[in-house]
C-alpha cells in the first residue's frame, strides 16, 4: 500500500549516508540559509562549520549565483550536450582553465564528484590505448581514499564500508598504503614531518605488477572523507617522480581541495605538484547546482584528436554535461570567488584557524588535531566496543548548540565556507569546546 502523501511524512525518502531511523525519530531540517548560517524548521540559527558537504565555499545565498541561475532558466533552460553547444559552457571552460596549472587547458563536465572520478579513470585508460599502450589497464588507489560511490570510485577507493557490500568491483586495481601515522605525527600543524617513505609503496606495487600494466594512480592530495589525512612533507612530489619514471598518469582527486579550500585555487598549487588529470566538483558551483569538472593535460586531450573529423573522439559524456543552468551557476560562482578573493582567502585565515583549533588540545577524548587551509579535524578516542558513537553524540550536541559539524568514524571534520570571519571561528571553537567537555 502506498504511504499517504503528507508534508510531514518522512518515510518515503531513503536518505543517503544517513542513520535513517534515528533521523526520522528526531529530524533535523534546514529551511533556509544565508552566508554562514542555516535556519532550522524550529527557527534556530546554525553556523555552517562544513560548507554544506565541503561545497558551499562562498557561503549561502550569494546574489551573483542566485541571479545567474534565475536568468539562465528563463533564457536557455537546456541544450543537448552531444553534438550541440551553448555559449556559457564554453565561457566557463575558458575561465576555469585559466585557474588551473599551466599545461592543463582542457576540461570535461560531469554532474558530481563521483562522475568526475569515473570520467578521469576512463580517460586515463583510453589515453594509453589511443597512444597504442593498451596494456596499461591497472588503476592504483590508496587505502582510506574516497573517490565517490560509483563502481570505479569504490574500486580505487579504500573506505571499507563503502566497498564491502558490492561484490568484486573493478578488476586490475591495487592500493597504496595510507599515510596516517598518529604515533609519529599526532597534533602536527599542517603537513606531517614523517612519512615521505610511504610513497615508496608505489614502487612496491610497480615491482609486483610491472609498470607496463599500470595506467594511473589516483589520490586525494588531502584525504577528506576518511577524516582529513594530510600528505607527509615531500610525499606528493615523490609520487609524481615515481609516476614520471614509469609513464604512469597521476590523478589528483580535488573534489574537496579544489576551489580555494587550502588557500590556493587547487591543491596542485599548494603542494606545487602538477597532476596529469584533476578531478573536481562541489565548489565549482558552490554546491548550488550539481556539476563536476575533469581537467586534463594538453597532451592527453591532444592524443584523442586524431582520425576523421566527423568521428566522435571519446565515447563518454552525460545528458547534463555542461548543462546551461549549471554553467551559469559556475560562472556566477567564479565571479563571486574573484570579486571577494575567496580562492586565496583561506591562506589569510589559516593561521587564526590553526591556533583556534589547536586550543582544543588537552580536552577530554581528543587524541589528535589536524589542520590545513580552512580544513580541520579533531580525532576522538572511540568508546570501547562502540566505534562512531562518541563522534555522533558530538555531532548531535553541536547541532543543538547551533553548530553544524561532520563526523566520520570518531573524527570531527571541519571545512567552513571561505567567507568565515574570526568571531565565527571563535564561536565554532567555543561551541566545540563545550561539546567536548560534556561528552561521555
Ligand atoms: N571525491 C572526493 C575526494 C570526495 O570528497 C567525491 C569524490 C564524490 O563526490 P559526489 O559529488 O559524487 O558526492 C567526494 C565527495 C564528507 C563528505 O563529509 C564528503 C563527500 C561527499 C559527502 C560527504 O566527508 N565527498
Describe the overall structure:
By secondary structure, this protein is α/β, with parallel strands linked by helices. It folds into two domains: 20-61 and 342-437, Alpha-Beta Complex (Aspartate Aminotransferase, domain 1); 66-340, Type I PLP-dependent aspartate aminotransferase-like (Major domain) (Aspartate Aminotransferase, domain 2). Helix content is 37%, strand content 16%. The protein has 16 helices and 15 strands. Strands 4-10-9-8-7-5-6 form a seven-stranded mixed beta sheet, sandwiched between helices. Strands 1-2-3-13 form a four-stranded mixed beta sheet. The chain has a four-stranded antiparallel beta sheet with strand order 11-12-15-14, with helices on one face. β1 and β2 (37-40) form a beta hairpin. The chain is globular, with a radius of gyration of 22 Å. It starts with 19 loop residues before the first helix and ends with a helix. The mean pLDDT is 97.
Radius of gyration: 22 Å
- Per DSSP E runs of 2 or more residues, the count of β-strands stands at 15
Q: Give the number of domains.
A: 2
CATH topology of the largest domain: Aspartate Aminotransferase, domain 2
Please name the CATH architecture of the largest domain. Answer: 3-Layer(aba) Sandwich
What is the oligomer described by this structure? single chain
- Under CATH at level 1, the class of the largest domain stands as Alpha Beta
Overall geometry comes to globular
Q: Any low-confidence stretches, pLDDT <50, length ≥5?
A: none
Amino acid at each position: 500500500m502506498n504511504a499517504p502523501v503528507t508534508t510531514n511524512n518522512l518515510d518515503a525518502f531513503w536518505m543517503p549516508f544517513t542513520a535513517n531511523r534515528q533521523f526520522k525519530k528526531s529530524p533535523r531540517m534546514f529551511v533556509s540559509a544565508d552566508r554562514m548560517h542555516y535556519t532550522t524548521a524550529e527557527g534556530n540559527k546554525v553556523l555552517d562549520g562544513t560548507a554544506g558537504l565541503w561545497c558551499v565555499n562562498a557561503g549561502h545565498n550569494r546574489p551573483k549565483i542566485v541571479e545567474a541561475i534565475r536568468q539562465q532558466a528563463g533564457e536557455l533552460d537546456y541544450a543537448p550536450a552531444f553534438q550541440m553547444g551553448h555559449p556559457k559552457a564554453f565561457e566557463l571552460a575558458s575561465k576555469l582553465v585559466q585557474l588551473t596549472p599551466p599545461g592543463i587547458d582542457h576540461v570535461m563536465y560531469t554532474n558530481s564528484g563521483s562522475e568526475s572520478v569515473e570520467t578521469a579513470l576512463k580517460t586515463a585508460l583510453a589515453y594509453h590505448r589511443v597512444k597504442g599502450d593498451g596494456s596499461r589497464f591497472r588503476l592504483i588507489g590508496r587505502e582510506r581514499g574516497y573517490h565517490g560511490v560509483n563502481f570505479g570510485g569504490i574500486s580505487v577507493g579504500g573506505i571499507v564500508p563503502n566497498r564491502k557490500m558490492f561484490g568484486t568491483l573493478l578488476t586490475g586495481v591495487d592500493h597504496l598504503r595510507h599515510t596516517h601515522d598518529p604515533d609519529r605525527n599526532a597534533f602536527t600543524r599542517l603537513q606531517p614531518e614523517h612519512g615521505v617513505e610511504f610513497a615508496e609503496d608505489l614502487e612496491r606495487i610497480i615491482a609486483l605488477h610491472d609498470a607496463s600494466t599500470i595506467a594511473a594512480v589516483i589520490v586525494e592530495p588531502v584525504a577528506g572523507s576518511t577524516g582529513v589525512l594530510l600528505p607527509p612533507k615531500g610525499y606528493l612530489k615523490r609520487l609524481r617522480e615515481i609516476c614520471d619514471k614509469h609513464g604512469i598518469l597521476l590523478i589528483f582527486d580535488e573534489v574537496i581541495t579544489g576551489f580555494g579550500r587550502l588557500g590556493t585555487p587547487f591543491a596542485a598549487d599548494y603542494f606545487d605538484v602538477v597532476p596529469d588529470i584533476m578531478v573536481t566538483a562541489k565548489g565549482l558551483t558552490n554546491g548550488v547546482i550539481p556539476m563536476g569538472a575533469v581537467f586534463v593535460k594538453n597532451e592527453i586531450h591532444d592524443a584523442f584528436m586524431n582520425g576523421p573529423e566527423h568521428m566522435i573522439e571519446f565515447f563518454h559524456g552525460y545528458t547534463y554535461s555542461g548543462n546551461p543552468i549549471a554553467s551559469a551557476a559556475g560562472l556566477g560562482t567564479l565571479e563571486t570567488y574573484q570579486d571577494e578573493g575567496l580562492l586565496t582567502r583561506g591562506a589569510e585565515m589559516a593561521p587564526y584557524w590553526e591556533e583556534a583549533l589547536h586550543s582544543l588540545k588537552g580536552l577530554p577524548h581528543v587524541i589528535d588535531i589536524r589542520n590545513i587551509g580552512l580544513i580541520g579535524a579533531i580525532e576522538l578516542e572511540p568508546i570501547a566496543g562502540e566505534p562512531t558513537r562518541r563522534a555522533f553524540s558530538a555531532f548531535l550536541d553541536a547541532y543543538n548548540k547551533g553548530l553544524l559539524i561532520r563526523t566520520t568514524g570518531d573524527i570531527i571534520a571541519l571545512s567552513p565556507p571561505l567567507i568565515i570571519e574570526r568571531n565565527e571561528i571563535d564561536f565554532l571553537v567555543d561551541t566545540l569546546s563545550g561539546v567536548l567537555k560534556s561528552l561521555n
